[in-house]
Amino acid sequence: MLSKLKQLIQFRIKTWHTSMRGWEEKDIRVLICLEDVIWYWAVLEWAWGIVAHLCHWSDYIKLPKFIRNLEGHWDDDDPEYCATWEDWYGDSIHSMFHCNICDPFFQWVYKHKDYFKGAWPQFEMTLAEAKEKFAHDPEIWKWVEESLEEHKQYDAEKAAEKAAENKE
Fold first, then answer.
1. Which of 22-36, 62-76, 80-94 has the lowest mean pLDDT?
2. Each residue of 117-130: b (16+ CB within 10 Å) or e?
């Protein structure tokens, strides 16, 4: 009886996932990984995907002006620094949601899920190689291209800000 219960609770499933490493185009690598995890960690990881979407959408929920204008000493390391809520946390509930709900849940799941870390097959390839190998399924590498474009845009904005500061 107990062995049957243990088999049910410890049922393992194999899942493939893709991830990315690198920031600049020459450094970008697409990682294809096979995971062998206990079913409930896979379910929690799937649930984290939903929480991540909620975290992203929480940026559209703006706080009332009276909260954003609250002044305080938000930095424990520098008690002399005084700032408004909006300057420190932003104008939406996103940063609070991310720091207190999304990220702790994510860290908890991954801390427990990676029991056999390093034992899974993992394939690393450049973006060009991923495009060639997975031409039939662009979903695998399309998001890497989109992320790369976001990185380029971010770098361009930072360079423009720095150039503007240098002109002054």
1. 22-36
2. eeebeeeebebeeb
Measured CA distances, 72 to 44, 75, 80, 100 (Å): 37, 9, 10, 20
Residue 36: CB partners within 8 Å, gap ≥ 6?
A: 12, 13, 14, 116, 119, 120
The tokens describing 20, both together, are 């990315």
Report the 10 Å Cβ neighbour count for 50. 9
Share of the chain above pLDDT 70, in %: 92
pLDDT band at 119 (very low <50, low <70, confident <90, very high): low
pLDDT given for residue 115 in this prediction: 55
The residue behind tokens 């971010």 is 154
Measure the CA–CA gap between 76 and 79, rounded to whole angstroms: 6
Domain boundaries, the chain: 9-167
